[in-house]
Amino acid sequence: MDSDTAWESRVKAVLKAELKRRDVTYGQLAAELKKLGVEETPENIANKISRGKFTAVFLFQCLDAIGCKTITVSID
Known about the structure:
- This protein has 76 residues and is mainly alpha-helical.
- It has four helices and no strands.
- The chain is 63% helix and 0% strand.
- The model has no long low-confidence stretch (mean pLDDT 94).
């Protein structure tokens, strides 16, 4: 995998899969992030995720907010 776009797609897929696995909407994620002191609207979250351009910090904040303590990542 050599392009940033491909990597962005993979990271986006990981976050979307974890949200889906836990049946968490963007609205619910925004509420949970707010509890961590992270101010994001559901619309901002949707835009960040759809673009696949977000920081590792945002990824980990989201994972923590939804109660995801471990993920398995396979890099082929």
